Amino acid sequence: MNIKQDIIQRANHIFYFVIALALCIIVRLVSVQYFKKDLKGRFYSARVEETLIRRDTIPAMRGNIYANDGSLLATSLPTYVVGLDPTMAKPEYFDKKIDSLALLLSRIYRDRSVNDYKDDIVNARKHKRRYLLLNRRRVTFKERQEMLKWPFFRSSAKVAARGGVLRPYYERYHPYGQMAERTIGNLNAKTNRGLIGLEASFQPALAGKNAVGLVEVLSGGIRKPVEDGPDMTPEPGMDLYTTIDVNYQDMAESALRSALEKYNAAKGCVIVMEVATGEIRAMANLTKQGDGYVENFNHALADRTDPGSTFKLATMMALMEEKAISLDQLVATGNGSATYNGLGIHDASRAGHGTITARQVFEKSSNVGTHLLMRSYFYRRPDLYCQYLRQFHLTKSTGIHMKGEAVPVVRNPDMKGWSKVSLTSMSYGYEMQITPLQMLAFYNAVANDGHWVRPVIVKQIKLANEIIEDNKPYVAPEAICSPATIRKAQQLLRGVVVQGTAKHINNPYYAIAGKTGTAQKIVNGKYQVGKYYTSFIGYFPADNPKYSMVTVVDSPQGDNIDLLYAGAVAAPVFKTVADRIVAYDYSIHSPIKARSSSPRSTTGLMAGYADDLHTISSTLNIPNEPSTEGWVESASGGRWKSRTTRPDQVPDVRGLTLRDALFLLENRGFRVSVEGRGKVKDQSVSPGVGIEKTAGKAITLTLG
């Protein structure tokens, strides 16, 4: 054998040896990973885990979202993963406390015995494992508070916890359930980022700043911080203080849901806004899903559609600004049908309205009348009409601080698709796409004497008690039109409710002003009779507006088409919500004239306990308070005098409430029977009689 062959042979031996060694290593790894279930296999697995260290993030606690009264709309509730570093405690402490810890773990988790927990912890300490996951179930904050008193978890100013680890994880929670769900929004389960609504719109502020540092990745994906420096302390997110009123939100949602269910409608929305500030008190959105309704799309903010007859207000205001019409001028609407450049124009009333005034054209919502008024002036000046729409803030989004607002599409002569009948269709609310919120902002400006206010839903952003951002109401610098036009527009809107298409929601208790809108839906490119988008937009009380509101019921169904118009469908929703708000908001009502505060009684007798009367007088701001203590009764001149209640005598309970009378008598051992209702008018045993003389201690009280 020559040298060359010898070298090749040795190389082959080395090659085969390396291959065999590699196969042995692979077999050993597979054996340890999949077949070694004994302690030795777990030891190797733990040793591998201890070497896996990398940079990781600890998520910050997400900020809260509050209603305008401080109620929580969304918050992050912590749950905790419970672990233990069994090597940290000293031997004498470990031996003394391990039994107590195992017992407590068995009690709280109720899944394993005391010995099982003890064996796991002892074995982990024996093999010097620096982290042991005690249970995969996360504990609540309340359970955590208890655990902080346990051995190994307990700490003080002088002694740190001896190995116990409670790592927080935050889960989003909505205390009011699905209320305003689309407005509040929700989070992506994987990234914990806001998907929609306020959660998405204010993601950077709510999210806070995560902590970044080195962690040890353990079995089950558990991450244990290797260091505990300032970088490992996350900064919590900021809190949003919204303008939503949970009571108004509930009123809006319940009224909307009832109407949608009644008419088996496809969807709908309600927005309640404060006139002077633009603060949104309620934003309800419901969509039919299966047999019920859910909040899965923000129709108020993003659902653009033909507004229908509610847009006629803009047309009338533009005509009045140009002094092109008088509200008392006559308009010959005939039988309610007309044709212009091949476009058929029809009124809802099949019989037509005949010759009516311009005011009645609006109140009765005549499409033909609106077309005739427009033809007399703006058909020769389409650019001027479109300029007024821009002046009314109808061609741009409102700029509300919330993602998802759709941009309105309002035609003008420079746009593609403009035709000879575009202006006609636009005059009564077609050939455009506008959201309910944008239309409400326009009507709100009319209620606000011509001053357009930007809608706002987040009033403040705070970090703890520090105000980071304060959203003051934005009022456009110029009025949308002249004061004279505003006054006439307000009269027109009030007329719709008094004698127009919404007269059935008029009531003697407070005044409503507004306009109905019924737009035909487009199906396969054509407007369909019987498929309607119904809405009502207005404000209340009309004589001193505080709230504006839009209600929408889309695609109501029913056998009688005449009962599917906005006046019958959307307007009642408006009134239902408005009724509840007026009953709830006492500031709307006129103050009650003050009455005499002197105590009066039809029986000539009033009595009570002085402390109770002090509380009542202080709360109701009544000046005549008792100057003495204990039990008192009324005297002449609105004064009070003491009433003797000796323990050895039958007390005088006349003039007292039944509760107070029972207190005095039952404490003296009397068996009390009652006749009638009201305050104590008479008692069967005379006051002042000695207790020992009352046989059986039975007494009857007559109320009146």
Automatic annotation (TrEMBL):
Its main location: membrane. PROSITE patterns: PASTA (PS51178). One of its GO terms (molecular function) is carboxypeptidase activity. It comes from the Bacteria. Residues 626-648 are annotated as: Disordered. InterPro entries: Beta-lactam/transpept, Beta-lactam/transpept-like, PASTA_dom, PBP_dimer, PBP_dimer_sf, PCN-bd_Tpept. The chain crosses the membrane at residues 14-35. It is found in: Membrane. One of its GO terms (cellular component) is plasma membrane. Residues 644-704 form the PASTA domain. Keywords: Carboxypeptidase, Hydrolase, Membrane, Protease, Transmembrane, Transmembrane helix. One of its GO terms (biological process) is cell wall organization. This is Transpeptidase family protein. It comes from Spirosoma foliorum.
